[in-house]
């Protein structure tokens, strides 16, 4: 089978490639990214493509004719979307529309995995927790509006042009190799630095916020299962742990795992206004479809992340 | 007060201008359209602007600094959106994003009326009738996806940038001067032609479909009241009659009004697959906000439309 992954060079992409090959040793994997990642393997071919360039994208789809497409590429920063709302919205919707149009033309039989975000839920009340796919999305950032449009456009192309699309609303991912602008990666890095004597205290923001964290290895397994399942027709599935963890819980776990007790300082600059105190999802729908549930505990995830940083400090 | 109307040259625009001046004789009305309409009046100024041209739009907003903006302009054909999904979606979202961005820069205090469509509801079941604003939109055309994105973007700019926006989901409008590609205008024209001996039969499509038709004069009154009410913060209001009418009902009314009984022929080419047999809305929310309800009966509307065509046949 031929798997085409857009944005394969990102955090999730490398885990996804590994997982596919582990499951299907004769898989052929095609990566599309805006910059070269220079990954070398028999089963892997890389194309450097800006997905806003429809002609170049089309030429690849025409040549490759993939069986599956996993669309990971996006301008995924919520903060960037506030700074450049037009560009962020247009880029994310335009790359998706280019992809849909190219699929209609050159590989209408393929199955597309469209990645969305828990950000789509937007303003939620605590009564809505855990969030289910049947809730009305009330997106609160230009990034999240584009993600909702992507889902809606998936429905239109699925019903109107017969494309086979499955959509996710993916909650917070964590794992080794994630950039340290993400909260768990950042905290683990600071603990590793503290242990190495490179800093004397750990600076935090609001530690009472509760989020739903899922190991990236569980995420890519869910993505693969969704592609192989019957869940098409633009159906939407939460990808989440189903479990709420506060930042304070994470800090406590890091103290336990590293067997240290740093001193902490709250930086008021990191205390941004938070729309939702608690965001967790329900994974009941994907579980019913294909039996998926999270397998890696939060403690195991965080242990591997802090060890990853310890090797790099 | 200064009222800026985008797309003032369309069907709704001329009614809106008349209504505003009737209510506020000292109003100043500024029309923005892609082509000259050459309407002359003391209270009226016209600018020829393609809303995709952000610089030109900005220069008008900077100069005019309107108190109210009524955004009627759109690429509003569902059929066109199927033929050119990318262009239709991009154009509608881009003109709206340009407008929001311009408002932030040059007239952040103004109140914006964002026009949406009952098409946003998409696939509905008969249990959902009459449609309420609390339903999850499941848009089924690229046009409708763009309209949902417009609503979501209104929430983002209202909460994130403090803009004052009120949104509608407007159901089928009818009235004199509407193009004959719309069903009631088309039927009324054919009855007028039959009466004038210019055709021997009336061709129809599926006459069992039930829709919610509202006179354009009731529509523009609702738009004006929404602007003057407290209903901002990106709240959404159905603009509808609350009443379902089948195409067959319309034909029966036309027979009665014109006192004729033409022969009918069903054209299979006009029998397109219809996603929803019945679409009607509830106007309870706008009624609670500002007391608006429809005032013009369907019979009065259709009488005026058929008379309008009789003068032109």
Give keywords:
homodimer, 313 residues, alpha/beta, seven-stranded parallel beta sheet, 13 strands, 42% helix
Q: What would your notes on this structure say?
A:
2 copies of one chain form a homodimer. The first copy, chain A, is α/β, with parallel strands linked by helices and 313 residues long. In chain A, 42% of the residues lie in helices and 18% in strands. The first copy, chain A, contains 10 helices and 13 strands. A 7-stranded parallel β-sheet of chain A has the order 3-2-1-4-5-6-11, with helices on both faces. In chain A, strands 7-10 form a two-stranded parallel sheet. A two-stranded parallel sheet of chain A has the order 8-13. In chain A, helix 6 packs parallel to helix 8. Chain A is globular, with a radius of gyration of 20 Å. The N and C termini of chain A lie far apart (40 Å). The mean pLDDT of chain A is 94. At the A-B interface, helix 4 and helix 5 of A face helix 4 and helix 5 of B.
Write the layout of secondary structure elements.
The structure is a homodimer of 313-residue chains.
Chain A: E1 2-6, H1 11-23, E2 28-33, E3 44-48, H2 54-64, E4 68-71, H3 78-83, H4 85-106, E5 111-117, H5 142-161, E6 164-170, E7 172-174, H6 183-195, E8 201-204, E9 210-211, E10 213-215, H7 216-228, E11 235-239, E12 245-246, H8 247-258, E13 263-266, H9 284-290, H10 298-312
Parallel strand pairs in A: 1-2, 1-4, 2-3, 4-5, 5-6, 6-11, 7-10, 8-13
Antiparallel strand pairs in A: 9-12
Helix pairs in contact in A: 1-7, 2-4, 4-5, 6-8, 6-10, 8-10
């Amino acid at each position: 089978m031929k798997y085409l992954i857009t944005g394969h060079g990102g955090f999730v992409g490398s885990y996804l490639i590994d997982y596919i090959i582990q499951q299907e040793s004769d898989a052929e994997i095609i990566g599309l990214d805006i910059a070269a990642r220079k990954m070398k393997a028999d089963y892997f071919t890389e194309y450097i493509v800006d997905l806003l360039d429809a002609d170049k994208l089309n030429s690849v789809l025409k040549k490759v004719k993939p069986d599956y497409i996993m669309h990971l590429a996006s301008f995924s920063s919520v903060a960037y979307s506030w700074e450049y709302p037009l560009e962020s919205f247009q880029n994310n919707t335009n790359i998706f529309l280019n992809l849909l149009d190219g699929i209609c033309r050159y590989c209408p039989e393929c199955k597309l995995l469209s990645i969305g975000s828990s950000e789509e839920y937007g303003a939620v009340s605590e009564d809505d927790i855990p969030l289910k796919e049947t809730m009305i999305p009330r997106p609160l950032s230009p990034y999240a509006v584009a993600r909702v449009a992507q889902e809606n456009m998936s429905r239109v192309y699925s019903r109107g042009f017969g494309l086979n699309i499955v959509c996710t609303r993916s909650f917070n991912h964590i794992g080794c190799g994630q950039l340290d602008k993400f909260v768990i990666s950042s905290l683990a890095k600071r603990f590793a630095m503290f242990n190495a004597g490179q800093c004397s205290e750990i600076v935090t923001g609001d530690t009472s916020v509760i989020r739903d964290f899922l190991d990236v290895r569980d995420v890519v397994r869910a993505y693969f299962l969704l592609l192989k399942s019957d869940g098409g027709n633009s159906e939407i599935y939460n990808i989440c742990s189903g479990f709420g963890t506060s930042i304070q819980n994470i800090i406590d776990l890091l103290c336990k795992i590293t067997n240290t007790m740093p001193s902490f300082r709250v930086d008021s600059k990191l205390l941004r206004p938070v729309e939702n105190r608690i965001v967790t999802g329900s994974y009941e729908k994907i579980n019913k479809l294909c039996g998926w549930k999270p397998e890696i505990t939060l403690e195991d995830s965080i242990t591997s992340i802090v060890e990853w940083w310890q090797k790099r400090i």
